[in-house]
Every structure is written in C-alpha cells, then in structure tokens.
Write a structure and sequence with these properties.
Blueprint lengths: L15 E2 L4 E3 L2 E3 L4 E2 L3 E2 L4 E3 L2 E5 L2 E5 L7 H9 L7 E5 L5 H4 L2 H7 L4 E5 L3 H8 L6 E4 L4 E3 L4 E6 L9 E5 L4 E5 L20 H12 L3 H11 L6 E4 L9 H12 L12 E7 L5 H13 L5 E7 L5 H10 L2 E5 L2 E2 L2 E2 L1 H9 L9 E8 L4 H12 L9 E4 L4 H19 L13
Parallel strand pairs: 8-9, 9-10, 10-11, 15-16, 17-18, 17-19, 19-22, 22-23
Antiparallel strand pairs: 1-2, 2-7, 3-6, 4-5, 7-8, 12-13, 13-14, 14-15, 20-21
Length: about 425
C-alpha cells in the first residue's frame, strides 16, 4: 500500500509514525513554486517537524512555516499533550522552520528550548523578545528523555551559521535540518514511496549546500560514523530506504574531481574572454602563452561566446586562479562576463587568484568594474588589470605575455613582491 494517512476521515491532520516513538508532525505546501526568491520548486515543498517520545517526556524537533501552523499543531496534538513536552529543538532558525515556535512556547511554557551556540543572537532577532529561556548546545551535548535521548552535532553554514543536526541514538535516526533535504512535496512522505525526486535533491544541494562544501565535509565526518536507520530532514522526503546512499552522494558532490588529474603541487589557471573585434581575444591568447611558461601551472583558455555558463562554473569551483577578459562597451563590461560572475554566487571563491584584462575604445571602465566584483566575491586580485586601447601593438602583446607570466608566478609563489604606486590605480 503506497498511501500514508495524513488526515482523519473528518479531515483533521494526523501525525505519521516513523517508529513507535517518533512521529512526523509537519506540513505540506504543494503549490509553492519559488522558495527564497532564487529556488524553483516544481513539486512544492514540505516543512518537516518531528516528535520523539521518551519515558520522561516528549521532544519536538523543529516547527513549520507560520502559515501552516494549524496543521502542525493538529498533528502534534494527535500524539502528545502540551504538558508532556519537555524539550523543543531548533536545528535551524530560518522562518520556514520556526514559524510556529512562538505559539508552541506559549502552549508548552515548561519546555526547554535547545539551539546551537551560534543561534543565540539570531533567535532574539527572530522572536523580538529580550527574555528568552534557552540552552545553547555544541557537538557532544546531550539531553535525556528517559529511555530516549538526543545528541547534538554542530554543523554550521549548512546553510546558515546556526545550523545543527540532532541524533536519536536509541532510534538510530538523524534529524538533519536542511542537510539531505530538498524541495519536493509528495504526500507519500518516504523516499521509497514518493515520485522520482533525484533532480530536486541535486538541485537543492547545488543551490543551498554547494557554496559551503568545506563545511559539508566537516559535517560528514560527524555523521558518517553514526548507525542510521533513517534520516529526517526539514524539507522533502524522509530517507528511510538506504539512508547511507544520500550521505555517500553528499560526499561525492563535495569532493574535488580535478585534483585526481593533477600532479602534486600543480596549480590551475582558467582564462575566459569574450571579444567584439578580436582585440581582447589577441590579448587572451598572449596571456595564455605567458602563463604557459610556468611548468607547474595548468592553463586553460575559453571563449565565452562558444559555451554555456553552467559547465564553466564547475571548472571555476576547482581552479586555483580565474582570469577574465572583456571589452568595454557603453562604459561597462559585456553581459556574458556579468552572467558568468552572477553564476559564481553558488561556489566558494575565497582566496582564489583573480585577474582582469581587456581592450577598450574610449575609457575602459569594464576592467576596473570586473576587478571590483572579483574582490567582492573574495578573490585575491594582486596584479592590476591590463587594459589596451583598441588594437594591441607588438609591445602591448609583450605586456600581455608578461601579465600571464606574473599571474602564473603568483599562483606558484614565485612572483617577486613589488611596491604598488597608488597613482597608477
């Protein structure tokens, strides 16, 4: 039987048993089509919340978006009295998980609220209350419900600074917050019953977790050793069938692929350009030739006019250096360059090497504007961008080769430090 009973015959929302002691008390939002402005949700989403019962009390783990609070409270009331609630856990403070919290705290004033240490200031900003009773926790902290217990895992930046996971060892269940979640609404709830949600799982990772890969890896080091029967995220299907498969997929998505192809200590430099009349292209080719002089730098050259942006983003994520070439048209860099830069918000670029060059006809603002954007994306831009007016001369082509050589030397640490004359900037 594929269906899961979410309502009584009278239409009253009901909790769904994940085990004898654990219930889902969340809400479904099948008509949502955009989440947080940037995410498309072709199948809507779910706001998953959970209840776990111990011999000495009940814990509520996360709540739901405010507009769906009635469903949450009805399901909660179907399996517990408010007087039994001893613990409330918030794995993440985003409004879609905390919308019902103020009312829950009113109905269960005796309950102790547990949040991550980094969530403390955010909680006050969220509820706009100065006097809040809560307990901040870190990895290794535990709370007892008698014959059931909860253990906390600090997993920051997945995808807010406050995020954590909660593990119920006696149930071998991980309440993972946004980790291993996705925006996919299906009233069958379980991953082995719902429709094909692989696209949503990968899409969610790419837009929510990908910028924080280093934190994903740290979280996996805490999660991978845990005995697990089930992963219960705050969005999307509950992962009871092969939960380790989703952990392994996160490991794959967070592990660099390019490094397997490189020699030890070899660096990678990517040069992207777009050219109106061939002048910026000539500069790019010369910069490429200059950078190629350093044996320990693997240099690649790409014409943005001939490729889609998405595959380039994958390349840039694993590269050590990024160089962009753009003409200046109407006082600005050209659109394909800005399209590429806007796509880089989903990856971590901090401390990568950046450089900019380009041909111009009048004033050449494009190079400076792109340099500013690279700095805004946390790249290092230690070498002033190179600008050439109209057609590069032989001397200017030589300058381009020297520019490429300097960038490659910077990557390998072989570049000599120089005193910058700010009058030249």
């Amino acid at each position: 039987m594929n269906s899961v009973q979410l309502e009584s015959e009278e239409g009253v929302p009901l909790a769904v048993a994940l085990s004898e002691r654990v219930h889902w008390v969340g809400a479904l939002d099948p008509n949502l089509r955009t989440f947080d402005i940037i995410l498309k949700t072709a199948n809507g989403t779910s706001y998953n919340a959970y209840v776990i019962r111990g011999s000495e009390g009940v814990a509520v783990i996360d709540t739901v978006k405010e507009g769906f609070a009635n469903d949450f409270f009805a399901r909660l009331e179907s399996v517990a009295d408010y007087s039994e609630i001893k613990v409330i856990v918030l794995n993440h403070l985003e409004p879609d998980h905390t919308g019902a919290l103020p009312e829950l705290m009113k109905r269960a004033p005796q309950a102790q609220l547990f949040i991550s240490q980094k969530a403390q200031s955010m909680l006050k900003g969220l509820l706009k209350q100065d006097e809040l009773s809560y307990t901040p926790v870190v990895t290794g902290d535990k709370v007892s419900l008698g014959d059931r217990s909860l253990e906390f895992l600090h997993t920051p930046y997945l995808h807010w600074p406050d995020t954590q996971c909660t593990y119920a060892p006696e149930e071998a269940m991980l309440f993972s917050g946004d980790v291993f979640g996705c925006h996919f609404c299906d009233n069958r709830l379980y991953n082995d019953k719902v429709g094909d949600f692989r696209f949503s799982f990968e899409y969610y990772y790419a837009h929510i977790m990908r910028p924080f890969k280093e934190y994903v890896v740290r979280a996996l080091e805490l999660i991978e050793p845990l005995p697990l029967k089930l992963i219960a995220p705050t969005h999307g299907p509950i992962l009871r069938d092969r939960p380790q498969h989703y952990i392994q997929r996160y490991r794959q998505l967070s592990s660099p692929a390019l490094h397997n192809e490189l020699r030890p200590n070899q660096k990678t430099l990517l040069i992207f350009y777009i050219s109106s009349y061939g002048n910026t292209r000539r500069m790019a080719e010369a910069i490429y030739q200059g950078a190629m002089q350093i044996e320990d730098v693997r240099v690649s050259l790409y014409d943005l006019e001939g490729g889609e942006v998405a595959p380039f983003v994958d390349l840039i994520e694993e590269a050590d250096g990024l160089v962009l070439g753009t003409p200046t048209i109407n006082g600005d860099a050209v659109k394909p360059i800005w399209d590429l830069l806007s796509s880089l918000a989903v990856v971590n670029l901090k401390n990568k090497l950046g450089g900019v060059f380009g041909s111009y006809g009048w004033t050449g603002e494009g190079v400076r504007l792109v340099e500013d954007r690279l700095r805004g994306l946390k790249l290092r831009v230690p070498i002033q961008g190179l600008r050439v007016k109209l057609i590069p001369t032989d001397d200017e082509i030589h300058e381009c080769k020297a520019f490429g050589l300097e960038l490659a030397q910077e990557l390998t640490g072989a570049r000599e430090s120089r005193v910058i004359n700010f009058a030249d900037l």
